[in-house]
Amino acid sequence: MKYILAVNMKVYESAFGQKARELARRASVISSRYNGVEVILVAPLVNASSIAEIHDNTYIQHADSIGYGAYTGYMPVEALSHEGIKGVMVNHSEHKVTYRHLHRVIEKARALELKTLACGDTPEEVAGIAHLNPDIIAVEPPELIGTGIPVSKAKPEVITRALDSLRKVNPNIPLLAGAGISTPQDAIRSLELGSKGILVASAIMKAKEPWSRLEEFAEAMNNYK
Amino acid sequence: MKYILAVNMKVYESAFGQKARELARRASVISSRYNGVEVILVAPLVNASSIAEIHDNTYIQHADSIGYGAYTGYMPVEALSHEGIKGVMVNHSEHKVTYRHLHRVIEKARALELKTLACGDTPEEVAGIAHLNPDIIAVEPPELIGTGIPVSKAKPEVITRALDSLRKVNPNIPLLAGAGISTPQDAIRSLELGSKGILVASAIMKAKEPWSRLEEFAEAMNNYK
Amino acid sequence: MKYILAVNMKVYESAFGQKARELARRASVISSRYNGVEVILVAPLVNASSIAEIHDNTYIQHADSIGYGAYTGYMPVEALSHEGIKGVMVNHSEHKVTYRHLHRVIEKARALELKTLACGDTPEEVAGIAHLNPDIIAVEPPELIGTGIPVSKAKPEVITRALDSLRKVNPNIPLLAGAGISTPQDAIRSLELGSKGILVASAIMKAKEPWSRLEEFAEAMNNYK
Amino acid sequence: MKYILAVNMKVYESAFGQKARELARRASVISSRYNGVEVILVAPLVNASSIAEIHDNTYIQHADSIGYGAYTGYMPVEALSHEGIKGVMVNHSEHKVTYRHLHRVIEKARALELKTLACGDTPEEVAGIAHLNPDIIAVEPPELIGTGIPVSKAKPEVITRALDSLRKVNPNIPLLAGAGISTPQDAIRSLELGSKGILVASAIMKAKEPWSRLEEFAEAMNNYK
After folding, report:
1. What pLDDT score was predicted for residue A107?
2. SS3 content of chain C, % helix, strand, coil (to 5)
């Protein structure tokens, strides 16, 4: 299995317009260059379809637990495959949903052969989510998000306890570590702790050249072990 | 001034994929063919940027009262112009927001030279919204939305009272009539009552060929007076 | 007409238990003592019925736009009169609702002969709310709430512009000024600007003896003019 | 251990005023009369403090994950003990919250020695919640709530699978069965399936004399085994 390098583009300025498209182009190149790493772009709602046209492995940052219909301004899971989007992130720390919502989105995505990346704050939430069998789970202590203090250094026990949780409930789900991951070294440290990859945002999106930073992460992860 | 024919694509199946793009292509053609009518497509969040590439006059169905930043899965107004989107619909009956939200989105959109189409349920809400000076206001009695019973026939007083409200608060804002508008005749009846256009959804989006239905509306409105 | 001294108890520690009951007892005494002032306690949800047993003129801090039924944990307007509560505050800066919500709560309250105190951030929102004809409107610039910087001093134009708005839409609705009101002098300044009273929270609720502070405000307002 | 008979009063008309107080009085009598049954009243927000004065074992229907402070119209867990309330129900099917909310409310309640009754839709959600160690968990398939079709008859596997989940994660937490429980026989059937009690609403609250119906349930559960 490849290591997963998931970039949450959030809605930083660099997540839109030409800069976002350049990132998508480079993400594709980087994906082919480093065989041991899978690069996922988690795109904003408004341009996910445009990003997905450029980088094949694009997820969207949120979906609502609805189907097609009269739901102005909401995001049905069904629409994603028609727009070339490969997967959906759900329950991110900045966009928490109910367990019911999570359950419905994951079931619907599975039926539509879309991938799911579900986020949890804590090992307990990771365990709770694992019962729903998403494709990937990310653990991110909310107090570290955006701080530059990497979870892999400040709270390694969150990663190891989340891995314990997964082992008991559903050991096949790959765990990503997130929150404060700032350098390729932080990413490697997460892999050493047993995670299968990282969920990273500001370290890449706020870099002057997000694609260069992305490549540094990809190269380091590709060379690991 | 042109009459406004605003199509709320909602998240009907036809609002995504090839069918949506075909509608966008035709909307452009129809816009050039009928000089007296301005066709606005109000696109879903996920493909608004793609629709806007095809049909210039595309709005999005909702925006959040946030700026750029760490707001995973939300929709900052700032992003719209970078994605080629011309305007934002806000406070639709199916996506109600607080007055504070409305206020912030309208102010931010104005600063960015984006258009705003704000919706209200009642003549009272229309009056309330008019104090914020959006570019367009639509009035839609929620109990008629999606019923096929046109507001212009079932509740013409909602339109005329909303016009009275606007006259007192801000007479320059064009009013659209919406809810249950099913035929070009319903649209014409709305214009006769004094509205400057319509906001229509299911009558077009659920038609077998949405673009043909769109052209029928455009032609009728173009020929009026 | 009496001046209105409305105390938003919020959910400060002093809003619960014996301290809250003591405040309610004193509010009743103060009400009888100062004939020119109407003291309203705006109570938390959980003890509004208990506070209302002690102080007759008790409102609740929020109500949902629902009726009786299977709405676990929500607050139907209908329940209030059965629990001795006289009125409902709605759309406070810390608990914003949609215009539709506001509309329904105000209409339902009127039908049930309950009073309504609706809050707005700005003169524009005050105007918008006035179209719904609540019994009282309070204007509170959110940026001053809890700061101790009184609206009457820092942004007197918010009060005077809100009064202008009311004059145009519905001149009979009394306006309360709120946000940062810390001293009886701030209250008097608000009356001088044309308001009919104040909405005050931390200045009273965070005082060592909230009832003594309440009496100081009541006495000053009673003596004004 | 006693069987648990938890009555979700919801916001039915009978949950307020004199009828609610009569139910509280009788609940106390019934509690003393049937030693094998613990009667919990889950009261509306607005009169929970008044109900708790009459029936000692009163929970509230919802709490927010906040502390004391400037949160107008919200429900801090801290306030409950000052108002004589013994516990909090959280995440009911009609008032779903995020896992983070659930986590915070349960932790805060534990610190304050308040009981928690957490609800889940499915065996998966029950498992997820069990990782947080609330005092009681109730499982209620949302599609059966209020239908009169008892979960114990229509979907007994929901109860048995939820028990399996608990056995793996945290076998000490008592499980209540809910949704559609209409008769004392439905309650007994739930106990036979292994639950430790029931969560019931409309069957009692919509009865002409809720207290008589309550006694029938209590008597039957008391006599079981």
Report:
1. 96
2. 45, 20, 35
CA D45 to chain C, closest CA, distance in angstroms equals 5
Report residue C81's pLDDT band, with 50, 70 and 90 as the boundaries: confident
> What pLDDT, in 10s, does the model give residues A111-169?
999 999 999 999 999 999 999 999 999 999 888 888 888 888 888 899 999 999 999 88
Are C70 and C59 in contact by the 8 Å Cβ rule? The answer is no
pLDDT mean over C99-117: 96
Average pLDDT over residues A1-21: 96
CATH number given to B3-60+117-223: 3.20.20.70
d(C-alpha D188, C-alpha D216), whole Å: 12
Q: Is the pLDDT of residue C114 over 90?
A: yes
Residue numbers of D between 146 and 175 with CB closer than 8 Å to A? 165, 168-169
Mutate to test the interface with C, among B90, B91, B99, B166 (most CBs of C within 10 A): B99
Q: How far apart are CA B84 and CA B79, in angstroms?
A: 9
Angstrom distance (rounded) from CA C198 to CA C5: 5
Please check whether residue A214 is in contact with residue A30, taking contact to mean a CB–CB distance below 8 angstroms: yes
Q: Read off the amino acid at residue C209.
A: E
Instruction: Find, among D121, D120, D117, the residue nearest to D105 by Cα.
Output: D117
Minimal Cβ distance to D125: which of A97, A103, A125: A103
End-to-end CA distance of chain C: 13
Domain ranges for chain D? 3-223
Binary contact (D131, A132; C-beta < 8 A): no
What DSSP string describes A2-23?
Answer: -EEEEEE-TB-GGGSHHHHHHH
Structural class in CATH, domain C3-223: alpha beta
What count of other Cβ atoms lies within 10 Å of the Cβ of residue A167? 11
D125 part of contact set with chain A, CB < 8 Å: yes
Statement: the pTM of the whole predicted model exceeds 0.90: yes
Antiparallel, parallel or unpaired: β A37-43 and A3-8:
parallel
What are the residue numbers of the active site of C?
Answer: 92, 140
Closest among C183, C136, C171 to C2, alpha carbons compared: C136
Could you report the per-residue pLDDT of A55-107, keeping only the tens digit for each? 999 999 999 999 999 999 999 999 998 999 999 999 999 999 999 999 999 99
User: Has residue D225 got a pLDDT over 90?
Assistant: no
Per-residue pLDDT tens digits for A151-164: 888 888 999 999 99
DSSP, res D64: B
* Lookup: tokens for D15: 């949950």
Cα distances from B95 to residues B63, B92, B99, C78, D21, in angstroms, run 10, 5, 13, 26, 39
- What is the model's pLDDT at position A220? 96
Assigned token pair, B170: 């801000």
> What whole-number distance in Å separates Cα of residue C198 and Cα of residue C160?
14
Distances (CA, A) of D86 to D43, D48, D135: 11, 10, 12
C36 in Cβ contact with C64 (< 8 Å): no
Residue range C138-157, pLDDT digits in tens: 999 888 888 888 888 888 89
Nearest CA distance, C157 vs chain B (angstrom) = 17
